Amino acid sequence: MTTSPVTLDSVLALLRAQPHDEDQLEQIAQEARLLPIAELVYLVGSRPATEAALLFRVLDKELALAVFEELPPLHQAELISGLRTPQVAEIIGDLDPDDRALLFDELPASIAERLLHGLDADERAMTTAVLGYSRDAIGRYMSPEVLPLRPTMTAGEALEHVRTHAAEPETIYMLPVVDATRRLLGVIGLRRLLLSEGDEVIGDLAHEAVHARATDDREEVARRFFGAKLLAMPIVDSEQRLVGILTVDDAVEILEQENAEDSARTSGSEPLPRAYLSTPILRIVRSRVVWLLVLAVSAILTVQVLEIFEDRLDQVVILALFIPLLTGTGGNTGNQAATTVTRALAVGEVRVRDLPRVVWRELRVGVTLGSVLGVLGLLVSGLVYGWPIGLVMGTTLLAVCTMAAIVGGLMPIVAKKVGADPAVFSNPFISTFCDATGLIIYFTIATAVLGL
């Protein structure tokens, strides 16, 4: 159904109106039913906590659950505090175990424990199993609700088994095949099962499974998931026993979170845990101020370099005019290399052991870029300010581009090696490093060429 802006505005107006009587609450409910899920998620995610809780209360159970599942875990936790206990219990009980575990991560321990004990025994056991893995492990994002098949089943028996239990697992498009000890033997797609003869044996129809261990890193597994073009992936323990399944929606969510985190850190800030419009101002400030302070302290290096070469600037004032050009070129070259290598690391095109190859490749890229810019700098500055200055500029651009490309390609891999986030070592630190180092190269070449 297409929704006009008037409907959205009317819901906003009703939410802002105080106090709310029964007629107004009913009107909000009627208007809200006309909005698509995406608009309701926007309203709940962008309004203050009291208004969001009010809107959520008037939604029917199915609509409320659909909206709740689309919210970030931190926002889910904050919303729960403003809802009635019976409504909370219903919502928590209807969540998938993996989504429930992410929500419990954001709740105070006492509340999470109370909600956990309010679940039935099966749901509690599945949720506890997911909570047993670290936040970076893929086991934290898998669904333990799986429908396995035995290799001795016929296709007809397997189809009947799927029909009987189809409502229990999160997906039935990919069916794991396990032995009596739940050891993973292979997988079979629902399409192939439907097209098979009724007397064919599942063990003969199944094929080798692309799978992951529950303790594997979530981002690496998610990227492998999409690289193999899967709809679902079996998750096993250290003894190859099936413990859960990763579905495509959870893999998408993982990569969205990782990409948002990398994007924020590349620009020198921390990712926001909830919608921008509903994030408190101080929380946004905290996400940015740490990196600004770090970069401000780092930038002092540039000032100190200028102070060291102050006497050269006094002798040839024209050198100061080219400082922004050189620092900008070095920073941009380094950032380009870092961004390219960081992405290559993320998608598995480059690994830590490829460090020498990356350095050699970036060396050649840097020399080529530096040669092009250096010739241009030599000609332009030489014609305008004299050939000695032109020689300084051309040589410096060659050296700076080469240095920046190598450093930009090197630092993400070093970060990966020491267990840090490669995005953190991209734009902010590389820019500062290339600024200071580029100035040292610049004044060293100027001193040699101009005899300062």
Automatic annotation (TrEMBL):
Belongs to the SLC41A transporter family. It comes from Brachybacterium fresconis. Homodimer. It is a multi-pass membrane protein. This is Magnesium transporter MgtE. The chain crosses the membrane at residues 289-309, 363-385, 391-415, 427-450. Keywords: CBS domain, Cell membrane, Magnesium, Membrane, Metal-binding, Transmembrane, Transmembrane helix, Transport. It holds the Pfam family MgtE_N. It is found in: Cell membrane; Membrane. Its main location: membrane. It comes from the Bacteria. InterPro entries: CBS_dom, CBS_dom_sf, Mg_transptr_MgtE_intracell_dom, MgtE_N_sf, MgtE_transporter, SLC41_membr_dom, SLC41_membr_dom_sf. The keyword Acetylation does not apply. Residues 142-205 form the CBS domain. Acts as a magnesium transporter.
